[in-house]
Fold:
Amino acid sequence: MFSATIALRKPVRRKVTTFFQTAMKIFVLLFSLVSLVAISLAEEAVAENDGLYDSTTQDSANQIEGSAANVSRVEANSEHVPTTATPGGESAPTQTGPLANLLGSTLLSLEMLDESHAQIVQNYTTDALRGKKVIGLYFSADWCGPCRQFTPELASFYKEMNSRRGKQDEFEIVWVSRCRDVDSYGQYFTQMPWIAMPPEEAMGERGQMLSNKYKVKGIPSLVLLDDLGNVITTDARNKIPQDKAGIGFPWRNPLVSLYMTVLPRSLRMMMKSQLTSVKDMLLTKAKSVVGLKRASVA
Structure:
C-alpha cells in the first residue's frame, strides 16, 4: 500500500517540478527583456545628460551655428521650398506618440510635378510614419562630399528594403538637414526618395537636439529607431556598406528581437512609458547634482 502511494505521487511531483522549471524560465526571460529595455533607456539618459554639457567639435559647432542663423531666412513664398497649408486645409490636430514628440508635428514629402519642378507637401508625422517598423534619421548636407557619395547608395538600399516580400514599405527615413540655407535644402531634397523634417526644424533647435541626443559627431550619419522611438543602432551608416544586401537589417540585438516578438506593441508602449518616467527622474537628479557641483566650484 505504501509503495503504491509513492508510485502515484511521482508523476504529480514531476509535473509540479516541470511547471516550476517552466515558470522560472519564463521569469528569467521576462526579467532579461525588461533589464535590456531599462539599460537601453539608461544609456539614452546618460547620453542626453552628457549632451547637456559636452560640446561637439569646433567644426560641428560652426556648422550648427551657421544652419541656425539661416533659419531666419525661411520665407513663406520661398521658390525652392514652398510652404503649404496643413493637410486638408484644416487646423492641425494634436500629434501624440513618441515619434511625434521626437520629430515634431509635421514632416515633408516631395512630389515631382515634372522633370524640372517639384512640390513639397506637409504630412502629419503620425500619418507619415504609420505602419513603419524601422525609422532612420539621416543627418546629411549638400556641402558634404561623403554625404553626396552616400546618399545614392542609401536611396538604393532604401528602395530594396521596402520591396522585400512581406516587408513592403516598413522602412522610412527622415532627413535631418544640415544644409546651410533653404535653397540648398530644396535642391538636395530632390535627390531623396524619403521624407524630411521642415528646414526650420532641422536647422534649428530640434535638429540640434537630435544631433546631441544621438551623439552625431560627423555627417553623413544614420540612426535607426523602432516604431516606439527606441534606438536600434546609431551606426547604420557604416553597416550598410558592410551589408549591402541587408541580410542583417536592421541589425537589431537578438534579445531585442525576441522582446519585440514576445511582447505586443501596446505592452511595449506601456513599459516604455513607465521606464521613461524613471529615466526622467534620474536625469533630473543628475542635472541637480551637476548644478550643485558647478555652484560649489563657482
